[in-house]
Amino acid sequence: MMHSHVQWRVFVLVVVLGTLPFASPLRAEPPQSAFGFNGTVSGFPTGEVFVSGGGAYGLATDFVHSAGGFSCLQDVLQGPLSVSINPDDPGPCLADEGVRWDTAELLASTTFKCTGAGAESLKTATTSNTTVVLQGDFYRASDGIDESFTAQMIVSATDIAPDIPGLQTLWVQGVGCGSAIVHFSNRSGPTNVGARR
Questions:
Q1: In 3D, which of 188, 161, 191, 193 has the Cα closest to residue 177?
Q2: What pLDDT, on the 0 to 100 scale, is given for residue 195?
Q3: 21 HSE (CA, 13 A, CB side)
């Protein structure tokens, strides 16, 4: 357990240090938050997705530098991961496809559902020092450097869907929510949350 905790701290430190070349020595920049995570999401009628990674961001400056790995564990047949934006490789993300994701944009907020069910209330997530909302590009290995899909993501140190059983700290648009291991680091100190088993 302690070894895992140390690994996350080292990962976040490396991510934060990796952003330092972008800082200007001539002016003070607002503090940035860093995050790391890994977990799986599901809940919509089809599909399950594993997502991991992390990065750094600053909402005041619209700065974001984050990426990681992703894999479709089950076929995703609804939402953005069901429709490829790559004309040379059409079709949904199928089981065992997917290799990585990176960030297209930092979003101030988004609305979302964990299950897509009509009875579920629409929720809102807002980027803060314990939650980050991203527009991500997702890649299949066969597409190389060309994006396969684009979808929104939420990573949070706190439960984003208290009305859903369990701890929901990760969301991928059109796939659902999940419980992830999440670590945020910012000027108010690190925040950790572990996935519930």
A1: 161
A2: 52
A3: 4
Residue that has been written with the tokens 């297209």 in this structure? 104
Measured distance CA(81)–CA(177) in Å, rounded:
14
Closest CA to 37 of 15, 17, 63: 15
CA 187 to CA 178: how far, in whole Å?
27
Q: List, in sequence order, the alpha helices (H) in the chain.
A: 2-18
Residue corresponding to tokens 């960030």:
103
Q: Is the dihedral of CA 52, 168, 2, 16 positive or negative?
A: positive
- Tens place of pLDDT per residue across the chain (197 aa): 434 443 444 343 334 444 444 333 334 445 489 999 999 999 999 999 999 999 999 988 889 999 999 999 999 999 999 999 999 999 999 999 999 999 999 999 999 999 988 889 999 999 999 999 999 999 999 888 999 999 999 999 999 999 999 999 999 999 999 999 999 998 655 555 565 43
Whole-angstrom distance, CA of residue 174 vs CA of residue 79: 4
C-alpha pair distances (Å), 22 with each of 57, 60, 63, 114, 159: 12, 15, 10, 36, 32
Residues, the chain, total? 197
Which amino acid is it at 8? W
Measured in degrees and rounded to the nearest 5, phi and psi for residue 81 equal -80, 0
